[in-house]
Design brief:
By secondary structure, the chain is of the alpha/beta class. Among the domains are: about 15-50 and about 55-120, no CATH class; about 140-150 and about 210-330, Nucleotidyltransferase, domain 5, CATH 3.30.420.10. Helix content is about 40%, strand content about 15%. It contains 14 helices and 8 strands. Strands 1, 4, 5, 6, 7 and 8 form a 6-stranded mixed beta sheet that branches. A hairpin with an 8-residue loop joins strand 4 (about 200) and strand 5 (about 210-220). Helix 4 crosses helix 14, helix 5 crosses helix 7 (about 105-115) and helix 8 (about 120-135) packs parallel to helix 14 (about 330-355).
Amino acid sequence: MRGDVATQTTMLSLITADQLVPSDHPIREIKPIVDHALAELSPTFDLMYSKMGRPSIPPEHLLKSCVLIALYSVRSERQFCEQLQYNLLFKWFLDLNVVDAAFDASTFSKNKERLLEHDVARQFFCAVLAEADGRDLLSDEHFSVDGTLFEAWASMKSFRPKSDGGDGPASGRNPDVDFRGERRSNESHASRTDPDARLMRKGLGKEAKLCFAGHVLMENRNGLVVDISVTHATGTAEREAALQMVDRLPRKGRVTLAGDKGYDTADFVKACRGRGVTPRVAQKKHSAIDGRTTRHPGYAISQRIRKRVEEVFGWSKTVGGGWKLRYVGIPRNQMWAELTVTAFNLVRMANLARAPV
């Protein structure tokens, strides 16, 4: 029997967003972790705001919104604010009422500047990581490191000679530019849109693009990210960032660090051993490590597990929207990276919680 089309909409409904989100939805595993982490950061939030003036968007809502943007591949903050008006799952996750108005996109972006100023994204990342540690999900002995290139927001047309003094080749918003026969390098050229971006290529035969270097330190037990860094894209950025992340790592004793062949250099291996770190890097033809490292069964295990770090980069670039960065400069992209890998860790923790014992 054909149903009738009801033209009269409901005037009053006694229903909440919580009743509409399925009881077995994966995000129900994520929300308590986020709420607990934000409760730990409440003293920090108190110091960020004045006791006087008009109330702003709560920092809890800002951070939860960034998690949703990463989880649901929302391409911009403006689009998120639009979806918040009618997406009841988003409102439920933010503890908003069904009738509450969505955030103004300009106000939302402006309020995020305070998160950047007080380095709240890093604290939120550490708070979620502490929750994972409390659940005994982290290894404190075995780690893996890797790096990738994130394409910058700036276009190749903005990569102009430093001697130009900032003047473009032509007037207009999108001028025609002919680069044929022009030799360009980071020493002689710089992006007018994003001076922090660097011209770099990932492997032979691939085109050079304006990029940032992204670096991840992963623990080997469950593949959770324990540190992330966004730096200038240079030939030595991966090894330099790896040592910096190892230095930030809270350690109780000697640890192992797995990596690909790019880390198999004498300087890096020596620096690791000087820090009490066993470098379990993939060997090149003339390797800086020998049988003293490779003879142990743990070396083969580390080499197998280290490849899981590619899952972090793959998730960040596809689901997290990092195939082309949305922000200008290292500080803002660092904040994006910290919030994105926090969302990755939350998904991983939720999956582990739901996995059969």
